[in-house]
Each structure stands twice: as structure tokens, then as C-alpha cells.
């Protein structure tokens, strides 16, 4: 509190009238510490004894910045040494003066403090809950009385106290004394806390800044819902389900409707559920208890049940005392009410206690319970029935427009030069990002800007941050996709066109599909001989469309435990829908979708059934997810998988023709040193010559020819011993062509061609 604005008694009034004690300075010590960490306002007595100052005398101090306060003289750390006319101050005293080491300090005079009979403290309900969780057996009032004993207080003072490693604020909201200085004016302070003082604590909802959980909220001064971006629809639902019943319960009674007793917020991590609850608490003008699930979980027998009971009783009592409603928010509520079928005995008792306490909340209590979780399926069904957490509100992954609003909240705290168009483009590229991801993106961009020696965040810094910060939903499944472009894949124009139509067009030209009332293809199957760039094409699709990319090898999904394999398939599709638009690439899909008549049932049949079910529902809720799959055994796939509506497009990826082989050779030759000077001039490029001698080679075999030639050149350079750089020659390539032979037979090529014709006429 600014003491320059505090009305202090003039020097001499209730004082010893010994006048000013001169100018001093705020001292640190040789060890670098600056004084005691006490919550009391204290000044070191040792250097003042020679001036006639005694223990517990009260001094009026004024700093060079004009702020002033009072402090009691005490002796601590008597062995410390300070410079001449240096004074050690307690932490709270330094904070009141906003004083740093070396600042001038004027000692104006001495006072006698008035004894306080009653002190009322305001602190956050989080602090009160943290104290309860310690289970010390002492009342909080008694503990704070012991902490403040001997302290000098002003009304409005803020003291800081550490509990469980967290620093909390204690505000002196009111002080009462036994008498006043005069009949005309009350004693303005300081007040002395002594053995006759009683201390009372009042818990209030603590307002937090924009950082918060959930990853949203800027660093500015916005409070309440003003610091929440992209969740307008959810905020309206919250106001209807929570704010309206608490602030205007008469409206419900008027029409004979029972207001909601409980609301469940659910959604992926980082979408802003906790931030919404904290913002709601700031908006409400009523008591709010904001608790984490761990605040209710005890270690002793019956401790959890007792804590749950006390929290609900406290909410009802606060609502009754103030004549208003009360909000009880429990974060990660699934930890308090897990499914009892799989829970331990302790957890079952805790669930029963919570349900009983919730049933005890009647409409007349005006108490609303708000729970948040990212695992709604883990909550006991009894909690989600009508009459308990009956209203469920999803806080989902934001779309492009919502991402833009969230980005604007975070960018408002940064010094940047992004205009509206650039912000929209950045939001468009952040597919699948939630609020926490966008906050991390902005922080990463800011750090990159500082490393570059710049002071303005630009679009390039944000794009670099995008590459470093993946969406949370894909962190377990995301695969680093190389920068593969269509131009990197020689030939295959027909195959490329089919992939562009199936994957790129619905994203880039969605309006055209909507105008024809046409759904985008759900799946594309790439089949053909091994080594023909099927996987490379799938990666090029993800790169060109800037879609999220999940790569799954078929065997990765199988587990020896019953049900785990099907769960793994569900998780892949769930994460893809959360991060849409997204490409799921199943390599070697025949290991997942083999013919059920030949597989003999078992886990393979169950996995296939789950895959079919997920593909049928892949386009639900407006989420754009495309399944790409590759196989060199298309005949082994179950017919249900290859029908229209699942894999809508079956694309044959044949062996590369001469033009495609030339393009592959050209790309490889640009990466290596080579010289064909011993060959006669023909007017053809080196890549063209090599392509003409590799009929029947797959793309992988063409690359292997180049690697073999490079290895021969390296071997020759080392054997020469002259230290010359390796250089591949025509003879090296001729030898490589003898070593690397085509492995795909003419019968195999005819099989794929016959399969393509059969699918076209089926």
C-alpha cells in the first residue's frame, strides 16, 4: 500500500517527541541477503541503540521515493555487519516502501502504537483450502495470530505468507482498537497485534491475471471473460447454466423451474476449462470456492470424506451468510469421482461421500457445483445423471475463427507487427491447436525474436514457432514429416492428380464441394509394387495441404491385452478429429484390414471391425479427416474396407516410367559429385541416359543405384590416397547397375494391372 497516501499522525502525537533521527540508507549484508523474511514491519535495532532507541519502539520511516511507513525496532541476526548508517529492514517493510539496497531512508520520529483488539484478514479461498489440506490440527485463525503477533498494522496493508511453497496475500481489511486518539477522529494506525488481539479470516475468490491455466488469457489488465478468447458460445452457456441461477434465482422460481445444481465442463487439455471457471468466479459477485481435486483427497482414513463434507458446508454457510448464491469449482473432477467398478475401496468411499454431499445441495441453498475434466469417460455415471452434474458443456478444439480470437488475446501482450491478414493466415495454419498451444506458440515466437536481437515479433517468427510447437492432441502420435513436395516426386502425374482431387481440393476449394452438396472422399488407398513412392506421396500430401499428419504402422496398434488394440484404433481417430483437418496414414494397411474369412477371427477381426466403424463416422461433426493407406497386397484386404464410402479412391502406383526415372535420377545427381566426361557427347542428359538403362526398376531401386555408385566413388578415392574429393563416373554407374538389379517381376506387374482393371469393372 502506498504510505504516501496513508494518513499518519504527526510527529509528537502519542510519540516520545525526540524528533528526527537523521538520514540512513537501506542496507544489504555481506552475504548478499537483505533482511528478515518476516511478515512483520521491522527495522534492525543494533545500529539505533546508540541513539536511545529501545526494543519495540515504533519508528516512522520515509523513503527517497516519498513513501512512508512505520516499523518496530527489533534485534535479529546480531552477528551481521552492515555499512555505516545502514539499516536492515524486514521484507514486508521494504515492500511497503518500495525500497532497494542503497536507497536513502529518513527516520522522522518515534511513535507508540495502539493495541488492536480485533483484526479482520481477507485471503483467497485457495489459501484456506491449502491450509485445510495440511491437516495440522490448528485453527487458521490461531496460526495467523501467532504469525502476526507483535506486528504493526495499518488498515489496507497487504502481507505475504508462504504456504506449501506458494506465496499468498493477506489483506488487513479492518482493525478495531480499545480506544481512539481523540474524540474527533479515529486512530489511523499503526495498530499493534498483542496477546489481547483476536484474528478472524474471511475467504474470498482471488482474482488472477491473464496467464492462468488453459493456456489463454493475455498478460494485460483484462479480467473476467474479457481475457477469454474464442469461447463465446461456451461463455453464453456458462452464464445461462451458472451465472443466472446464482445471481437471479427468483427468475427460475417464478416460472417453476429448478435451476441446475451442477455443470460439467469437458474437453481436451489446454482448451481453457480452468480459465473459464476462474473468469466466471471473477464475474460473479458471490462466494466462490476454486479447488483442485487434490485439495479434497486425503491420506488418512476418512479424511477425504471429511474434506468433501466441510467444503460443501462452507459453501452453503457462505451463501447463507451473504444472502447470495455460491459457486464450488472442482478441477479434474474425475480424480474425485472415478468409476467405482475399477476403483479401490478408498476411492469408492470418496465417490459416495461426494455424491451424498451433492445430493444435499438443494435449490434453496443457491449453490452450484462446476466440475472440469478432460476424461469424462472416466467419471462415475452416477455423477452425470440428472440432478447432479446434469448440464454438460463441451470446450472443444477451436476452429480457425476461434483460433484467431485466441491469438489476438495473446498477441495483444506482445510487441508485434502482424496485421489482420497475417493473423488470419497464422490462425488458419494452426490446425488442431488449442489455447495452451497458441499461448506456447506466442511465447516461443517472442523468445526467437529476442535471440535474433529484434524487439518486434513478426510473421516469420510465428511460422518458425509453429514448426517447434506441435498441437497437444498429436504429441503422442505426431511424426516429423520431411519437406516433401510434389515436385520432389518425378512422374506419376495421374497418381498425383487423384491425390490432389481427394485430399487437397476439399481443403482449398471447399466451396465447390458445398455448392454441389458433395462430401469429400473419406479414404484413399494407394497400392502397387514395393518401392514405388507410396509413402513419399502420402507425406507430400500432408506437406502440400499443411494438414496435420498422423503416421501409423499397422502392427503398432496390436496388443496382447483384450480390447487394447480396438482402443488404440479409437484413439488414433479421436486425436485426428480433435486436430482436424488431419491426414491419417496407415502404412502396410493389409496387416490391419486383412480378409476376415482368412484371418480366422480373433483380435485381427475385432481391429478391422473397429477400423470400419471409425471410417464410417470419420466425417461427423464437420471434422475433415482423410485416411490414406498404402499396401502392396491389395488382394489381401477385406472387401468391406475397399467399398465406396470407406476407401472411395483406389489408386494404382505402378513402376515409374522412363520420364519418372529420369526425374528421380536428376534429383539424386544434384546432391552428389559426378562426371560422365569419358562418354561421347550425345545431346542427352546424364539422368536421361541412366533412365534409359533402368527399365523395370522401382523408385527405391533407382535411388539405390545412385547410392551404390557414390559408394564406389568413395571407395576409389580412399584407395587412391591423394585426398581428392570423390566423384562418381559413368563406370561407377555401370558397375552399380550390375549390382542393383530390378526385383519386381513381369508377373507381379501384370498382377497389379489386372487388379486395377478388376476394380474398375467391379
Automatic annotation (TrEMBL):
Pfam families linked to this entry: AAA, AAA_lid_3
Annotated ranges, domain AAA+ ATPase: 259-399, 520-657
GO cellular component terms, semicolon-separated: cytoplasm
Molecular function as annotated in GO: ATP binding; ATP hydrolysis activity
Keyword match Cell wall biogenesis/degradation: no
Principal location: cytoplasm
Compartment annotation: Cytoplasm
Keywords: ATP-binding, Cytoplasm, Nucleotide-binding
Superkingdom, natural source: Eukaryota
InterPro entries: AAA+_ATPase, AAA_ATPase_domain, AAA_lid_3, ATPase_AAA_core, ATPase_AAA_CS, P-loop_NTPase
Ranges of Gly residues composition bias in the record: 210-221
Region (Disordered): 1-20, 202-221
PANTHER family named in the record: AAA-FAMILY ATPASE, ATPASE FAMILY GENE 2 PROTEIN HOMOLOG A
Protein name as annotated: AAA+ ATPase domain-containing protein
Organism encoding this protein: Cladocopium goreaui
